[in-house]
Design goal:
Layout (H helix, E strand, L loop, with lengths): L9 E3 L2 E3 L21 E6 L2 E6 L4 E3 L2 E3 L43 E2 L2 E2 L43 E2 L2 E2 L42 E2 L2 E2 L31 E2 L2 E2 L1
Antiparallel strand pairs: 1-2, 3-4, 5-6, 7-8, 9-10, 11-12, 13-14
Length: 248
């Protein structure tokens, strides 16, 4: 798509794209997020961030090997369990924790690192809010946090919050067949996606695309004409197709 972009998208060189580390997340610039040693670039709260590789810990904006005490086989220092948590690498599920920061799943439930799931009562894994959103959990309700429209029940994410969809939010959501048109919104123009004739201002939906009305007024009766005639345009006369030298 080209601008204006949906609320969940950004304009990168005249194209509407989903925010990602490859285009600077939600920042105004479309430059890729900077790379770091022993880390993977990620998006967090609409800005560039990073996740340390396994066995490394975040310290001062970078990822470094853990202190020597993180491999001595004893629970000491700031560790929440033996050689993990605190200033050491994050703990596996089942290990003791003080907060989500101690756990690989970012889920600390009743003092134990929980397995990431959509019903453990905490925000973990790729969830955008508690037990909802992201790639694996159900969409979030109105007012909950989101990153893109698919994180929300109504398909509308604006300013990182799930909103009620409308016919002017520049996002295809609700029962719209194309962006802000079709379904319960105003009919769509030519070449827009449609599901039925009523979705198109022309009154003709052919192969799920809005086409111009046929001169006969009947979508099943396309006139034949010589090659190069007006009805041979793909956006005209109910989407007639070439058949030899004629347009049917």
């Amino acid at each position: 798509m080209t601008p204006p972009c949906a609320a969940s998208q950004k304009d990168c060189g005249g194209l509407c794209v989903q925010p990602s580390p490859d285009n600077g997340c939600g920042d105004a610039s479309c430059n890729a997020c900077p790379g770091l040693d022993h880390a993977t670039a990620s998006c967090r709260d609409g800005a560039c961030a990073f996740d340390c590789d396994a066995g490394y810990i975040e310290n001062g904006g970078g990822c470094y090997p853990p202190p020597a005490g993180c491999a001595d086989g004893a629970k000491n220092g700031s560790e929440s369990d033996v050689d993990c948590g605190g200033d050491c690498p994050r703990c596996d599920s089942g290990k003791a924790c003080a907060s989500g920061a101690d756990c690989l799943t970012a889920a600390c439930v009743n003092g134990t690192c929980a397995t990431a799931s959509c019903d453990n009562g905490v925000q973990d894994s790729s969830e955008t809010d508690q037990d909802c959103g992201g790639s694996a959990c159900p969409p979030c309700a109105m007012g909950q946090r989101c990153r893109v429209g698919t994180d929300c029940v109504d398909g509308s994410c604006a300013d990182m919050i799930c909103r009620t969809s409308s016919c002017a939010d520049r996002t295809r959501n609700g029962n719209e067949t194309s962006v802000d048109c079709g379904g319960d919104c105003s009919p769509c123009g030519l070449n827009a996606t449609c599901g039925a004739d009523r979705d198109c201002s022309s009154g003709h939906c052919v192969d799920k695309v809005c086409r111009a009305a046929c001169p006969s007024g009947k979508s099943s009766q396309c006139p034949s004409c010589s090659l190069g005639g007006a009805c041979c345009r793909s956006d005209d006369f109910c989407g007639c197709v070439l058949d030899g030298s004629n347009c049917l």
